[in-house]
Amino acid sequence: MGANSARFVTAINPGGSLLLITEDTMSEMRSHASATYPEECCGLLVGVFEDNQRTKRVEEAMRMENVFQKEERYHRYSIDPKEFLAVESAAESKALDVVGIYHSHPNAPAKPSQFDTARAWPSLSYVVMEVRDSKPLETRSWILKEDRSEFVPEDMSVEKK
In angstroms, rounded to a whole number, what is the distance separating the alpha carbons of residues 92 and 141? Predict the structure, then answer.
């Protein structure tokens, strides 16, 4: 964090992890969430792990298609594994990694659901955006505990590029 930080959202973060993301990338994610409303949007966050994977610096948000059953997309998302692997491979060719996943919660809070918890990986950041009437409201980042029991809030810094 420095003088360039636009805002800093602090939460109870026992793991001490931090997601660093630019205003432009956040704006792209919020635009994606608005465009897909009332369905959930989903995408991958590509960047680098720093500080023994405690800090994730996002370089780019990659929009993914929500391939969950059409009638359930208002409260569920799924990323095609082949698309995930293609993004992961492209990232690796640039010395980057998939450091997180983002998705929206239409008409629901910006916190992971039980469905999200059952399908998450402990090493990634999970950014959830609350969207109501096509308007993104709260955005929060979460990490899954190593024992996979629950998500905990992750600090997030939104910075100017």
Answer: 23
Residue 15 scores a pLDDT above 70: no
pLDDT exceeds cutoff 60 at 1: no
Instruction: Give the domain CATH number at 130.
Output: 3.40.140.10
Q: Which residues contact 140 (CB under 8 A, 6 or more apart)?
A: 9, 11, 110, 111, 127, 128, 153, 156
d(CA 137, CA 66): 21
- Mean per-residue pLDDT for 111-125? 94
* Count of the separate structural domains present in the chain: 1
CA distance 49 to 41: 24
Backbone angles phi, psi at 53, to 5 degrees: 70, 10
The two three-digit tokens of residue 14, written as one number: 């026992």
- Residue span of the structural domain in which 104 resides: 5-159
